[in-house]
UniProtKB/TrEMBL annotation:
This is Reverse transcriptase domain-containing protein. It comes from the Eukaryota. Residues 469-707 form the Reverse transcriptase domain. InterPro entries: RT_dom. It comes from Rotaria magnacalcarata. The lineage of its organism: Eukaryota, Metazoa, Spiralia, Gnathifera, Rotifera.
Length: 707
């Protein structure tokens, strides 16, 4: 029998392990695995045997151990891959050596002479084969060699003489010339390597096909010919494994969303960058450098937040956190202090440097002593870049040049633009859309918090929502902040227009927005399955199916952009499109919420978008905030009912129509003039929806270039 103290300790250990598991799963992205595999633990009575109780409390610890091991396995896949390749390579070398010995014993003199003459050609072929396969993989991964990617055609223009539009047009021409050169250079490079590889392969094949297999001078040539061909196949297999091993490391350099067709950075502000600064920006927005000086001061705040989250989960289970949580946080604090410890005096810095050099020299001597004497290479420690100093210098330079650094809207590379350009474009956007009302310097946040909680309480008292939903959606004043507006440059479009993003991750209505979006988005995806795509890959499959029957000489590609969709969708009509969707699906409630409740909450979210920009506060009176999850679903619903007539017209004419949010793709066998006339007619369907089209035999859509 267990006493009350033992039961309390086991309960605390169980809860600590469970909470730590959940936190690690949240950080590592293994939550889906847990959702599939976890079975709810049954409550253990205090009178149960000690073995049963211990196994019940052990379960979260086992799950924690399992998921940590899964995470380690995921992070060390490349090590496993390299080790497996080395084992395969060693086996291939052994088999090749044995085949060579067998061939040497039975080869005729003429066969051996041909083998000796062919050996240097095979060595050259292995190099050419490796180069050719590497360049093909580089094209696949969009990783051009440095002698191509480093070339950028750009020169300084006098901004005091030329107008902004002229400057932009000239800079766009420079970017296009750079893009065209890189494309042509990469094509020529691949063509030359391919030709070298082809000629050498044909020559070697011709020699092997003519390998002597007729008996001469009493030697059995047929056996020697068969042995040589087996040896050659094994040799070729080894070369291919070596090539695979060298190509594998290109994966580590791969950066999604960037290629040789686009510049690595877009410097429209024309700031003079040093080579180090240029290389840093080329690494892209995803790059994070290790900086203990920055991380260390955040330790206290991060640990306090972590402790508060764990204690909150304890209190939800009606258990006092006790000492285990304090001990866990204290041990974590010590661990982080050791990781972030930076020597403060020159003596400490010199001591650490000496110790590091000694360790490196020892390791280097061990590695070198394990290598064959003919292949010994002096290993030197790679000089570590001082990214902190480069970033600090770059920040100062950007501030001094009155410039804004942003990532681009589509290609996700860094864009340097002038502050004046951003302000001018922002004013034009606000004037054109008439979607924002300036409130001056009066902060609307306190009133919005009060109105949100009151609205939810009224719904709860009227029994429109349950108590659990009220607690889930209500706002805590210390956990919210007002949204803020910023812009992403659309560098792929003429004049570099801006896409407004209202970042409201802690906005008072964000919980309601996400809650409704989780309910409604799957319903929209189900309803619009036949007219929407989720990626360029999905569109390619649909287009291939259509083209086998319908493609002809008159086929046109047409891409249509819906101008400022999120901002131009009317708030009331947008919410009513949700009701229209639910009526079409014949649903009276979703997730235990009545349709009327969903409509009321959606209207509250859409009409209460507030944000700050340049020291002023604004209220969005038209459309929805682009950073709010519900805005996407409402915009999609509104567009779905707008496009019904267009979809039917295109498909009745044997065409193909698909949409991805505000981008539309059409292919049809119509004359271009007729298609333009139809687009003009479609533009009159709704004064809020403006369509701008691009028609031709070559178009860009999402991440695709179709011809």
């Amino acid at each position: 029998m267990q006493n009350s103290a033992e039961i309390t300790i086991q309960k605390q250990a169980h809860t600590t392990a469970e909470l730590t598991t959940n936190l690690i799963l949240e950080r590592t992205g293994l939550g889906s695995t847990l959702a599939k595999n976890t079975v709810p633990a049954s409550t253990t009575a205090t009178t149960a045997g000690s073995t049963t109780a211990k196994s019940a409390h052990r379960d979260p610890v086992d799950r924690l151990e399992k998921h940590i091991l899964d995470y380690i396995h995921h992070c060390t896949q490349h090590v496993k891959k390299v080790a497996e390749t080395r084992v395969q390579l060693a086996k291939a070398q052994m088999a090749e050596f044995k085949a060579l010995e067998d061939f040497e014993q039975i080869a005729t003199p003429s066969q051996w002479n041909i083998h000796v003459l062919l050996k240097p050609k095979i060595k050259v072929w292995s190099t050419k084969n490796k180069n050719y396969r590497t360049v093909l993989k580089r094209i696949e991964y969009d990783l051009p060699p440095k002698f191509i990617s480093n070339i950028e055609f750009k020169f300084k223009l006098d901004e005091s003489i030329l107008s902004q539009d002229e400057l932009q047009a000239l800079y766009n021409q420079m970017s296009k010339m750079t893009k065209d050169f890189r494309t042509q250079a990469m094509g020529l490079y691949m063509q030359s390597l391919g030709r070298e590889h082809e000629l050498l392969t044909n020559e070697i094949k011709r020699i092997i096909d003519g390998f002597p297999n007729e008996n001469d001078d009493g030697f059995d040539a047929e056996a020697g010919c068969a042995a040589f061909k087996q040896y050659h196949e094994l040799r070729e297999k080894r070369f291919n494994l070596e090539t695979d091993q060298s190509i594998y490391f290109l994966d580590a350099q791969r950066i999604t969303g960037r290629g040789f067709l686009a510049p690595a950075i877009i410097n429209q502000a024309n700031i003079k960058l040093t080579e180090q600064e240029h290389q840093l920006l080329r690494l892209g927005p995803r790059f994070i450098f290790d900086d203990p000086k920055t991380a260390s001061p955040r330790r206290t705040t991060e640990l306090a937040t972590l402790k508060r989250k764990i204690e909150t989960r304890f209190f939800e289970k009606k258990v006092s956190p006790g000492r285990p949580v304090e001990q866990f946080i204290a041990e974590l604090d010590v661990l982080l202090q050791n990781l972030h410890n930076i020597p403060s005096t020159k003596k400490q810095i010199q001591f650490n440097k000496t110790q590091t050099n000694k360790s490196f020299d020892t390791l280097s001597s061990i590695i070198q002593s394990s290598q064959p004497s003919q292949s010994q290479v002096i290993i030197r420690p790679r000089k570590k870049k001082n990214y902190g100093r480069i970033v600090k210098r770059l920040k100062y330079k950007i501030h001094l040049a009155n410039t804004i650094l942003r990532k681009t809207d589509k290609s996700k590379v860094f864009h340097l633009g002038k502050v004046d350009h951003y302000q001018k474009k922002s004013e034009e956007y606000m004037d054109n859309t008439k979607a924002y009302q300036c409130l001056g310097t009066i902060d609307p946040l306190p009133d919005l918090i009060q109105r949100t909680n009151k609205y939810l309480l009224d719904l709860r008292l009227a029994k429109w929502i349950a108590q659990k939903q009220y607690e889930q959606l209500s706002v805590k004043p210390n956990e919210v902040e007002l949204a803020h507006l910023y812009y992403l440059p659309k560098a792929h479009k003429p004049g570099t227009p801006l896409r407004p993003i209202i970042s409201g991750l802690k906005h008072p209505t964000i919980k309601i927005s996400k809650f409704l979006d989780d309910l409604l988005r799957p319903l929209f995806d189900q309803m619009a399955l036949d007219s929407t795509v989720t990626s360029g890959f999905e569109l390619i499959k649909k287009l291939q199916e259509w083209s086998t029957v319908n493609m002809c000489q008159d086929t046109l590609f047409c891409t249509i952009d819906v101008t400022d969709l999120y901002t131009m969708v009317p708030q009331i009509e947008g919410v009513l499109s949700l009701r229209k969707m639910l009526d079409q699906l014949k649903l009276k409630q979703v997730g235990k919420l009545k349709v009327e409740t969903i409509i009321r909450l959606s209207r509250f979210v859409m009409t209460n978008n507030y944000f700050s920009y340049n020291g002023q506060f604004y209220h969005q009176v038209r459309g929805g905030a682009m950073g709010s999850p519900l805005t996407l679903t409402i915009s999609n619903c509104y567009m779905y009912f707008f496009e019904r007539q267009i979809v039917n017209q295109i498909r009745n004419s044997g065409g193909l129509y698909f949409r991805y949010i505000d981008d539309i793709f059409i292919t049809i066998n119509w004359p271009a003039r007729h298609l333009l006339k139809q687009i003009e007619r479609w533009n009159k369907f709704d004064e809020n929806i403006k369509l701008s089209a691009n028609i031709g035999s070559i178009v860009n859509f999402l991440d695709l270039n179709m011809e």
